[in-house]
Amino acid sequence: MSRTVNVVAVTQDDPFFTGRFFAAFLAAAMNGPVRLVEIVLLRNFNESRLALARRLLKVYGALDMTRLMARYATARVADLLGSPRSVAALAARAGVPVRTLSSINDESYLRTLRERGVDVLLSVSAPEIFRPAALAAAPHTINIHNGKLPYYRGMMPTFWALLHGEPEVTITVHTMVEKLDAGEVLAEYRVPITAQDSQFELSARAKEVAGREVAGLLGRLGTPEWPVARPVDMTNKRYFKFPTSVDVTQLRASGRRML
Known about the structure:
Layout: E1 5-12, H1 18-29, E2 34-42, H2 49-80, H3 87-94, E3 98-100, H4 107-115, E4 120-124, H5 132-135, E5 140-145, E6 153-154, H6 157-163, E7 168-175, E8 185-192, H7 199-218, E9 239-240, H8 245-253
Parallel strand pairs: 1-2, 1-4, 2-3, 4-5, 6-9
Antiparallel strand pairs: 5-7, 7-8
């Protein structure tokens, strides 16, 4: 009997990292049971563009910020020329509807998920906390976190893994609960860190691996191959905030690059 796994993804749009996830996800899901019903776009970092620019400038510094903006411009031109990098452009090419919301916790929107038979509400770098109504809006509410839990909870786990000299980054796929990054683990995927990796390169590669592997994982939903979720031992939990300029200086002093 044929089956379909209906997925709504919640994310933020950027041409650097989330675009890498969806490019890999859509390619891996092609001709399989996973159907991406819709992509919900929230505001990046849940803040204004000016606030986001200030945040990035503090972290990257003037020189790397200029380089980052050049990459952003190149990606936008690629979108226009038919070589999509952003989530919205990738979705348009694949025929996946995109919906922009101010909050995923909009209960009038959440009610539509049951009506449309959505099986999975998937958080991919979603910049907002899912409240109880969102957590219960679909049979499965799942988050993709690019860090080993519970040691790398919080923001930009790939940055902190680099700063701490880890040999690899662990992509953790876990169920979502009210406490951040504390749900039960469904799967883990390891991404080795090479001597040449910058923060940008590692984050991009981790997103590509996550997109490919998560598409395959969701394709097993409803079959005997679906993994049994296991709880996370929170005894040694840590939570990291967005890096500061001091943290970035330490990373560069270790011989690593941001870009």
